[in-house]
Give the backbone structure.
Amino acid sequence: MFASFVILLFCWVSVSHSAPAPCENLLRPVENLSFQHVKGSWALVSVSAADPKYLEKLKSGNSGSGFFANYTDTAEISFTRISGDGESCQYMQTNITLDGSGFRDPQLNITMTLLHSSCVDCIVVQLEEIPGKPLRLYLFSRRREVDANEMEEFKAQAKCLNMSEHHVMDPTTALCPHAISGNAAASTEASTTA
Ligand SMILES: *[C@@H]1O[C@H](CO)[C@@H](O)[C@H](O)[C@H]1NC(C)=O
Ligand SMILES: *[C@@H]1O[C@H](CO)[C@@H](O)[C@H](O)[C@H]1NC(C)=O
Ligand SMILES: *[C@@H]1O[C@H](CO)[C@@H](O)[C@H](O)[C@H]1NC(C)=O
Ligand SMILES: *[C@@H]1O[C@H](CO)[C@@H](O)[C@H](O)[C@H]1NC(C)=O
Ligand SMILES: *[C@@H]1O[C@H](CO)[C@@H](O)[C@H](O)[C@H]1NC(C)=O
């Protein structure tokens, strides 16, 4: 009885050693990230957080999106975070520089790493304030909602980062307009009332 348990355990251990660890696979950063990969606008589909209290602030009626634009004269990229609470829209624009698999935002002192996703029109963004301590995981898509498999993959990625809860944005809530036209540099911070 004990012997067969040991054999079983041994087999399990050897199998789990030969198969690639699922989390290792799920948390692979993208490679050779370019502006072409991220440019334009993205709707926030789902958020997961290490601290579930963060998710409590997100209610139905909230919306989120992101917008990447380049400048004509520098390698810097403009990243605008756009959030709506149903009454007004907040815009926060910062300059970033892409590295191989994400970017650092020097103004906010955060690191964003893009993780591989099987969803072709999504970006999965891992946010860290302190290196090695993922705070939040965001699923952005060109679509307002993703299919069940894509959501399952995102949930599995969050679980690998010890984030179990997640919030799905209401896809029927209108997104805030970009409110940014022409050169991205024209807008540092703006606020409109819907
Ligand atoms: C990334 O770029 C390097 C060097 O240009 C290349 O060797 C590598 O295959 C690329 N990786 C992917 C996933 O495209
Ligand atoms: C900005 O992006 C466009 C394509 O969207 C590209 O043609 C152009 O070369 C880019 N400019 C810089 C400075 O990278
Ligand atoms: C972002 O970069 C542009 C172009 O280099 C510059 O004009 C603008 O002032 C920068 N904005 C911030 C907030 O650093
Ligand atoms: C940015 O964050 C790192 C890591 O938490 C910290 O060591 C550093 O002092 C911060 N820099 C600024 C300018 O806040
Ligand atoms: C998740 O939690 C486990 C157990 O507490 C820990 O060993 C692991 O390093 C954590 N993973 C991350 C990505 O924080």
Observations:
- The helical segments are 2-18, 22-26, 35-38, 52-56, 148-160.
- The chain has one domain: 31-188.
- The longest strand covers residues 88-98.
